Amino acid sequence: MNYxxxxxxxGAIPAMxxxxxxxxxxxxxxxxxxxxxxxRRIVIIIVAAAVLAAVVAFLIWQSSAAPEQSEAQxxxxxxxxxGNTNVAGEITATGTLGARRPMPIGSVGEGGSxxxxxxxxxxxxxxxxxxxxIDRSVQSQQAEAQAAQVQVARADAELxxxxxxxxxxxxxxxxxxxxDVDRLTATRDxxxxxxxxxQATLGELRARNARLSIVAPAGGLVxxxxxxxxxxxxxxxxxxxxxxxGGEMELNARVSESDLAxxxxxxxxxxxxxGSQEVFxxxxxxxxxxxxxxxxxxxxxxxxxxxxxxRPGGFATASIRSGSVTAPILPESAIMSDDEGSxxxxxxxxxxxxxxxxxxxxVTAQGITIASGLTGRExxxxxxxxxxxxxxxxxxxTADSDG
Length: 403
Description:
It is a single chain. The termini are far apart. This protein folds into 4 domains: about 1-70; about 75-85 and about 325-400, conserved putative lor/sdh protein from methanococcus maripaludis s2 fold; about 90-100 and about 245-325, Elongation Factor Tu (Ef-tu), domain 3; about 105-225, no CATH class. Helix content is about 35%, strand content about 30%. Strands 1, 17, 18, 19, 22 and 23 form a 6-stranded mixed sheet that branches. Strands 2-11-14-13-12-15 form a 6-stranded antiparallel barrel. It has a 4-stranded antiparallel sheet with strand order 3-10-8-5, with no helix packed on it. By secondary structure, it is α+β, with helices and mostly antiparallel strands. GO terms for molecular function: efflux transmembrane transporter activity. This is Efflux transporter periplasmic adaptor subunit.
């Protein structure tokens, strides 16, 4: 009996222990649940620490990379210090070739039909040489008739003189009165006057006939021939010939108003006709006293000796010397312009660009001279100026190291 009770008691103790354990766990949680919560907290803390570390690292990297990124955004520009160069002044102009002294020659007489043409365009002639002859058959007959009238007048004058001489011999004898002598003297004087009139008329006819021959007033080159045999011409009509006096040519070079003011008579010039590789030397012999209101240009007349390559009416380019200047020279890429005029960008000591207004001067093979606005000691932006604005920071690189 005692044995059974002890067995029953031993079996009840585990059951009671289980109930107490279950009630305790339901109220306070199991050890396994506490371990899971701790693990989750540890994981969350680790993840948060990692995120925080990453953010801190990113901020540190960004702060260290910011100067490099800012520096990378500053544009690099090529600059040069132009200095001052002694430049021989030169003005380039274009114009038309022509005779320096063109001489139009026409008929100055009564005119008529051209019987002969003795020269052609391109021929050289001397002063007084006959260029063309106008038919003078009628005028020649008139001259011959007048020459006969001169002879008649002379005969009448000789007869009147003889009558007067005889009368003077008879006056002393009383056979002829003084009144008769006076009448014979007047007759003699009238006859002599008629001789002079006839001679003058004959001279006029001969002069008119001489003007029927078209002659060269001076020696030179025949540029134009505008008459043919059989053509009827008259005084005051179209010139029959155009002569270049002495064969001298010239270029009527058109230059701007400002360039014309820089030129002077006598300065040398080099002329190159279009289509020719030859260069001809001449000099400015006349400057136009007026300026064309529409084009604002004037004419510089450049004289040159004759050459067959210089054809009147042709086009040519002239390089005219206009003294020398000392000024900075810049390439065309460095110079910009707008409504306010021409300007360049210069880089200051703080490596920022500033706009500098300039006046342009002579254009040379090396570049464009700057008449005013620069001293030559500035750092001038050579390229990419169109992408800059005043005040922009830049990283200047000299032209020698650019590349």
